[in-house]
Records
---
Amino acid sequence: MMLSGKNVVLGITGGIAVYKSAELCRLFIKAGAKVRVVMTEAAKAFVTPLTFQTLTGSPVYDQLFIGSERFSVEHVGLAQEADLIVIAPATANTIGKIANGIADNLLTTTVMAAKCPILLAPAMNTQMYDNPFHLANLERLQNFGYAVVGPDQGELACGDTGRGRMSSPQEIFAAACRLLLRKEAWQGRRLLVTAGPTQEALDPVRFLTNHSSGKMGYAIAQAAAELGADVTLVSGPVTLPQPYGVDFVSVTTAQEMYEAVLACFSNMDVVVGAAAVADYRPGTVSEQKIKKSGELIISLTRNPDILAALGRMKQRQILVGFAAETENLREHALAKLERKNLDLIVANDLTQPGAGFGTDTNIVTLYFRDGRERQLEKLPKREVAIMLLEEINALLTAAEEEN
Ligand code: PMT
């Protein structure tokens, strides 16, 4: 529960994107945060408070002058309790009011009384977004230290196309996590993750590859970014969207992945090798499409072993590998831990349903250099990622204390 103990005020203003705010609210609650929802009158024209009351299990706050049992002065109580205020959707009207010091409803007064970080997720018609008054208001707020996520480009509810779509709930949640957790464990830590398969060309139309979807590596990169780490994701070809808030390097072959990883290794504190890197590539790549003519024998050449190379070079870095095995899981994983000079290896047993390639869950055992072992139950890859990051952080802290 990454956000347990955190208090989030979710401010909702009147825009069609409000339907995404329910999902955002659910993401906060699932992560363990306590959410108090403040709605403007315009927001209530789009969705009833009952939706958010049901999701949070608490009343929705919408009245400036009615005291509640919880707070004697509503806006001050909400502001003092909050670790973060997120306004999603944030309309041009509310952004304009805040930027100009207007506090005429519960949300804007709460913002004015707050000392915590404030995150705005603008959502409006593209002409309104590009209006110089609005852009100046947004810039003014950013200069005052307000964080802004989005908006995205695309088709808008009014039929126009352009800037103005509210970011996805996942993107807003990721930005919120960065603000909530950035002062904590992972701030200033630099983590490189490899993910996905590599593709090794045989000819212009064929390649050798494997079943990696990138889900495991992307979950690690996304969770680390949400925890405040500076994340570089080196990814083979996958169909997943780029995680929010990471430096993204796209590669195709094992050789390209090797070069991309080595280029930034010296700046990293941690490398997690979740990619399924092809151990071999065709010895020669045919310039033209290979034609059928009886038996075809392909000779293969060894690719560089990225983690093994890092294991030879490493100084202070923590190196984490994965092992995808179909037999003798423990034995093979421990051999790789040793051979590649890793600090930790995450072994997935490919014979178990719900583990390994392509699935949304994984079943892994962690093997540490100091001989410890930790078996995790079947969990969503995101949960596996969070638990793995907790273990890596403990290794980093222990190494720092030693030095
Ligand atoms: O992408 P998903 O569909 O979510 O699936 C996740 C996964 C199964 C791909 C992932 O959890 C996983 O196990 N990744 C490593 C798979 C693998 O190729 O393991 P390996 O035993 O071949 O390699 C061991 C380690 O060395 C891995 O960390 C690998 O990234 C690294 N390696 C391997 C070969 C090579 N040439 N260079 C490397 O760095």
Note: Residues 177 and 226 are 5 Å apart (CA to CA).
---
Amino acid sequence: MRKGTGVFSRKRFGQNFLEPAWVTKVIRAIAPRSTETFIEIGPGRGALTRPLASEAAHVIAYEIDRNLASQLRTSGLSNVTVVEGDFLDVSGFFPATSHQPPVPSRQPPATVRVAGNLPYNVASPILFKLAELYAQGWPIVDATVMLQREVGDRLVAPPGSRDYGVLSVLMQHVASAERLLALPPGAFRPQPKVHSVLVRLTYHPPAPAVANPATFTRLVQAVFTRRRKTLANALLAYTAADRDGGAALTPAAAVQTAGLDPARRPETLSVTEFARLADIYASISS
Ligand code: SAM
């Protein structure tokens, strides 16, 4: 029990349970269909799992909390497969854990949708994990996820805005983001200190495609450590590490080859411009 909350929950697992009054709105926004398979991240006590299971074909629910996973497994939902474990450790499609027999002889579905009221303490790693699984070929169509409002703002932020950063660029490269609902702290028990938003990420092949995804990721991460510097200056953060032979190319030369103004700030570059720049570094290292 967390002090003064009147509800048993584990803070380290980011447990803030959705209040019944909000469930219908969230499920309506997710809009499950009877033929669809869902991956739910963090089913908790099943607030979303039950309505999802009643509307969709199959729900595969990943829950890290052993007690909650066990309660859900024995709750008699025949089309819910509970996988006990950390979603961040997921690898194979669909994995078995030592606590759960392999997913029964179902064929992997042609497509899968993701839903979840995410644990806010690991929401960004989960978003990166989903992008990684998508890149590995998991047939993820979309992910409708509850997030801290500030994280949601970063997902939808356009270039040049205050919230535009690493998360914006790397997620917008593989998904379009849409804000669906805003929820106050009172929508959860215990109440979080922050406001929440429900966001849908609809995945697509990397747009534009990049020659070396690792170069693209490292370059974006590096230049945003100097987001208020000029682009040429910020690129020093990348080339200083001589990654991908970056030191063989001065930032000024890279920026010029990419057709960009060296006086611009990194935070003003579009995803396409980042991709162009990364491809220049990738081309000299190949
Ligand atoms: N879906 C429930 C609801 O809306 O009431 C619970 C949401 S609660 C914000 C987050 C849930 O994710 C908790 O049940 C927590 O135990 C689980 N969780 C936390 N970290 C996790 C992880 N790394 N992998 C899987 N589940 C996790």
Note: The radius of gyration is 21 Å.
